[in-house]
Design a protein that fits this description.
The protein is an alpha/beta fold and 688 residues long. Helices cover 38% and strands 22% of the residues.
Length: 688
Amino acid sequence: MPVSKWEEFFKKYYKQQTLHLANSYPDKRSLVVEFPDIEKYDVDLADSFLERPHDVLQAAEEALKIIDLPIDVSLDRVHVRVIKAPERIYIRDLRSDNILKLVAIEGIVRKATSVRPKITEAVFQCVLCDGTTPVLQIESKFTEPYECNDCKRKGPFKLVFSESSFIDAQKLQIQESPEELRGGEQPQTIDVNVEDDLAGQVVPGDRVVVTGILHSYQRTTPAGKSTFFDVYLECISIEIQEQEFEALEISREDEKAILELSESQNIYEIMVNSIAPSIFGYADIKEAMALQLFSGIQKSLPDGTKIRGDIHLLLVGDPGTAKSQLLRYVAQLAPRGIYTSGKGTSAAGLTAAAVKDEFGEGRWTLEAGALVLADKGIVAVDEIDKMRSEDRSALHEAMEQQTISIAKAGVVASLRSRCALLGAANPKYGRFDKYEPIANQINMPPALLSRFDLIFPIMDEPNVELDAKIADHILTAHYAGEISAHFKYFTSGKVTKEEVESAMKTVRPATEPELLRKYIAYAKRIYPIMIDGARKRLRDFYLGTRKQGDDGPVPVTARSLEALVRLAEASARMRLSDKILEEDADRAIRITEYCLRQVGIDRETGLFDVDVIAVGITKSQRDKIKLLKDIVRELEREHGGASPKEEVYDKAEEKGIERSKSEELLAKLKQQGDVYEPKLGFIKIARE
């Protein structure tokens, strides 16, 4: 008899938990049971649970109601929540054989309705005789009584709310995790019905394992009932996944291979050569991308502040420099990676959308976007400069606070988006000009640019020696593809397998992508600590660089120091080391210095100037603008009105500003509305 078996099971394995439940009842109404404990107690009971979960679960809940307790309490609304089911099934692998069986699925909460009451027992009152008739609501469709229990008439009836029973209910939509998809597959979803104390526990973006009973219902079409059925999951338990990359199973053989790889003397070179080997060069960029894949450590401070560990990268470059290929490769390599392109990306698609559809039965529901779905992964956004400015503004909060706050259609929520951003942009005028500030060349606000830890310009400059190497590499890659296709599809050809292997050597990654993904997932479980020597290196570099700003521009900010720390942490993780050494600090300094020399330098003075990125205008330009404005004001007083342009240029030249620079800066001031031309050849300061 299952009820007596369950009673014995609870007494043997869950005595303390049952007592705790009785003490907390009715605030707490669930007893969490681990499936391996049921197997340990009785294999037949565990097997029947998998095959007939509904009946066995009912027996378990009946056993809880009749169990002897030292406390005088009746556990009549109690639930048994079974977790750690033996086999997790991918949503795409659910079949008709699974209907009415116990299944566990893993995925991301994509949509969630608000919690609403659901009627379980409706009490109807006969309008003619006032007699009451209770009706259990088992089906999803509301059921009314056939006839009155007292007068046996067929109505009319009215619902008595005060005597009817209600429970909380919610609908979730679970989507497959990005790491389970291969080759651009469309992620599949399943609806989950959640009831009572499980309702309201999760929000869109949460990674969950849902254990439940698979049910089916018949589709209806305008022509009538269809032979096709849809499935949904009746939820028994929800486990919220907080662990890193749980879906990637690392076997003992994998672990052995990972540890062997970590002991390689040239581990950094191997990682660089494992990223997009078909693209020649870009060693510094590939090294930064490798560090981004490993990421720094997220810190939670006692005052509730969180410091992000994810590294954000931006590639700015000329057309045809393989930026998109690099982005796609990294998105596929990351254990959780999502690729999206700027033109086809909206703010709702990136962050979250409030949707009114059949799923929420006409009510507003939240739908998670790319930044939420890639939580603890990487989002690669190509053509980031082509996004509409109002859509791009959604990135500000996600990049620094790593949350997404949404207030749409009365739905107010804060979702987590702990992911790294890898962006690619084209310069406004086609090609990158190293003499022009980067903020002027990209259609992006400086406030967003300053949130990137590293910005790499990619310039396509003619260079005979380099061009020869690139040409050889491209032609070798194409030859390898040709010979491979010939061997695969032209069976009567004379190409041997050895020739194919030899040709493929140059384009084969140093480490197989599958092992590298597992290596990254393994490394993410390591939390290294910085030694004093490494901390001193970073401090000395930061202070030494800041010292340049005593009389000149501000070279770096505190945000730059945080970026250095993140890069050093990622460098230690790449070696699977629990200590951040001086060599990690030196690597972080080298990469940061390389970026500063490329984009954070004032070409007029040759000094580092963080304002090139953060404000979009250098200190030397700011000083010249201030001087020009003073000259215009002085001449306004002399002439008792507008200042003649020629005199402004002459005076500026006396003070060391070239005429061409003065013309350029005045044109910029005029465009910004700081000055205006009351008449031809004259200039006047706009009232401030």
